[in-house]
Specification:
This protein is about 25% helix and about 40% strand. The chain is α+β, with helices and mostly antiparallel strands and about 160 residues long. A hairpin with a 2-residue loop joins strand 2 and strand 3.
Length: about 160
């Protein structure tokens, strides 16, 4: 499975990367907070990526890692309205990637309005001790569970896996 196909996939990113790398994934939560009104972050989320303003959202920054290597930085905002309490608790614990968590509960997942772009993230690059002008491969999308918008996700890939 080629990296380009993974970038364009609208199903479980984690499963595809596990197949490509031959390693299981794990999550490393960096920050997580419940927000009554999720920030729109105009540099990241255009009006085409709305969340229900009446729903609280869990905003988190996490790393998707394979073996000892962080591969993907993800910023997600998830609406909690309509989710079972056990699913909400599992998300808060951060033990599984989001797609895997819902798939393990027999819930179909998909990405809607998937966009790919070269992305600049000087603060992230600096934290990783990379040049501030480092360009990452970025994806953003609406995260769908059982055909309902559950959140929005921005992913920045630290490598193109060609190494």
């Amino acid at each position: 499975m080629r990296f380009q196909a993974i970038l364009a996939s609208t199903d479980s990113l984690t499963r595809r990367l596990e197949i490509l790398t031959g390693q299981p994934s794990h999550i490393r939560l960096e920050t997580q907070q419940l927000q009554s009104n999720p920030q729109d972050l105009p540099d990241v989320w255009s009006p085409d990526y709305p969340l229900d303003p009446s729903s609280p959202a869990l905003t988190r920054n996490a790393w998707l890692a394979f073996g000892e290597h962080d591969l993907v930085f993800a910023h997600s905002q998830l609406t909690l309205t309509g989710m079972s309490e056990t699913t909400q608790q599992a998300i808060r614990r951060g033990e599984q990637p989001l797609g895997s968590l819902f798939l393990s509960r027999d819930k179909p997942v998909a990405r809607h309005m998937l966009q790919l772009a070269a992305a600049s993230a000087p603060t992230l690059a600096q934290r990783l001790q990379l040049p501030e002008d480092k360009i990452f491969i970025g994806r953003r999308s609406l995260f769908m569970v059982t055909d309902q918008i559950c959140g929005r996700i921005l992913e920045l890939f630290l490598t193109d896996l060609s190494l």
